[in-house]
Structures are given as C-alpha cells and as structure tokens.
Write a structure and sequence with these properties.
Number of strands: 2
Shape: rod-shaped
Number of helices: 7
Oligomer: single chain
Strand order of the largest sheet: 1-2
Strand content: under 5%
Radius of gyration: 65 Å
Helix content: over 70%
Amino acid sequence: MPAFQKRKMSDSPSPQKKKKVDSVHKQIAVITDALEDDSFEVPGTSANRRMLIAMAPAVLEAPVDERNENQKIVAEMFKELFAAEEARLSQQVAEAEAKVSEVNKELSSRKASTSNAEAALKEKGEEVKSKLAELADKVGVTRTAESTFKELVSDLTDLEQTQSFATEEKEATLSLKTNPFLPLKEGTWEGDTVNKDDVKTLTSFFRKIKADSSMVSALPMALGRKPAERSEFDSVVVGELDKKLEGKLQELEQTIKGNAAEITKKNALKDSADASLTTAKARQRADTEAVLALKAEAKQLSSELSEKQQAVVEQGVEMKAADGELLEKKSNLETHQKILSDLTTLLERTAPIPEVAVEEKTLEVVTEEVM
C-alpha cells in the first residue's frame, strides 16, 4: 500500500454545479427573450438590439469578478437599459392609474347627473299628476256649469212657450168676450135671433174653462134672450158666466205676469250660469294647456335621462377598458421587474470558490508521523 493516496476532483461537474449553470442559462434566456420583444425599448437602431442580444450570453455568463473591462461596460449598459425600461413601464402604470382615476371621476359625475335627471323627472311626474287632478276638478266644474246652463235654457224655453200659450189664450179670450159674449150679454146682436155658431162657441169655451155644468146648459137660453126678456135665472146665468169669463181673464193675466217674472229671474240665472260656464271653460282650457306643457317638459326630461343613462353605460365601458389597460400595464411592469431581478442576480453573481484536491494518507502513515 502506498504511503498516501491523492484523490483529485473529477473532471465532470457536480450535480449542484450543473444545476447552477442551468439556472444561469435560463436567466440569460429570459434576458435575451425580453430584448427580442419589440415592446422592450432599445435606444438607437435595430442593430443595437441585435448587438445586445448577441453579447448577453458572454457578458452575463461571466461572474462579476471575472469580467474584463469591456464586459463591465456592457453589463452597466444592460443595467441602465433595464432600469430605464422599468421606469418607462412604471410611468405607463402611473398614466394608466391617472386615466382610471379620471374616467372613474367622469363616471361618478355622469351617475350623479343621471340621478339628478331621475329626480327631476320624478318631480315633474308628480307635478303632472297634481295638475291632472286639478284639471279633473276643473272638468267637473265645467260639466256642472254646463248642465246648469242647459237646464236653465230648457226652463226658459218651457216658460216662454207657456207664456206664448197664455198670451194667445188671453187674446183669444178677450176676443171671445168682445164678440160674441158682450153682444149676447147686452142683447146687441144683429138680426132677430142669436147666431147658433156663437152660442156653440161660447158653450165650448165655458165647458173648456170648467164652468158650472148647469150654467153651461142654461147658456143658450139665457144668452138667446134680450136682457129685458130674461128671467131671474137667466140673469143669474149670464152674471155667473160673465164672472167666470172675467175670472179666466184674471187668471191668464196672473199667469202671464208670473211667467214674465219667472222668465226675468231665469234669464238672470242663465246669464250668470253662462258667465260661470265661460269662466269654467277658460280655467279648464288653461289647466289643459298647463298639463300639455308639463307633459312636454316631462318628455324632454325623459329624453335627457335616456341620454345620460346611455352616457353612463358608455363611460362604464370606457372604465372597464381603462381598468383592463391598467391591469395590463401592471402585469407588464411586474413581469419586467422579475426579469430585472434575474438580471440583477446575473450582474451581481460572483465566481464560486474552486475545490482543492485532498490528500489521503493511510492510518499507519499518519500514526507514524504523529509519533
């Protein structure tokens, strides 16, 4: 057995070292992939981007303490470039947040405006209801006034017709009194005998005005004689018939006077009712126009509310778009920050301490040397 044996490190890397190398390669691939993305801003022409992609493996594989001066310069370039990209992406996030804030503020303003429009429309609707109730009252008043007016007109028509009949009857009665009643009563008729038609006319008249039937029966005999030839009963009959005739004339006169007074009264009432009806119609018309105006205003408010509601919907869509853009910008920034973390790890990585060969000595040799 030799005095000692020397065990050297194997030429093949250990699993741990191999794992570290693979990790470095993956991180470098992440860096180069980021550089190859056109959204990553690289100053200058496309040649600068290609140069950085080509130099990345050589520069980033070398630990910080093994880089030459040129590699150190390029490493600083990588550091500044990725820091600038982080700043740019952070600025985009800030702008997206500002936009979200602005859009949200506008959305709140539009919602408030919509709420105000809804309140205004509701208030206008209540106003329309109130005015419709007032209009209904006015319509009721108008109908009552119209009914009263028509009733008075009808009463007047009846009164005037009754007055016309009474006047005609009075004139006919006066005419009958003049001829043939007075000539028969006074015995001044012409000829030797009484005209039978005159007697029939008077008989019919007195029967019509409901004179005593015995008087009516005795009329032809009583009036058919001259006053001097009449018996006491004939004179009584003539006197009673005369009183009945005068009574009828007085009755007709009273009727005519009463009708005239009632007509005057009804005319006054009719004129008043006509004025009330005119006033009621004017008020109803004014309220109708007011209701139509309020409905037009309500329609306009409804149209404005629809526009504001549509504006809220559109702003909501814009709000979703702004939120989506903000999430995208934040995601881009977070992704870049992870890449920047990998870059920082690569830039600050130091070379591993090399393993030293170990000499093994046999137990016997060690014991001998110690002794």
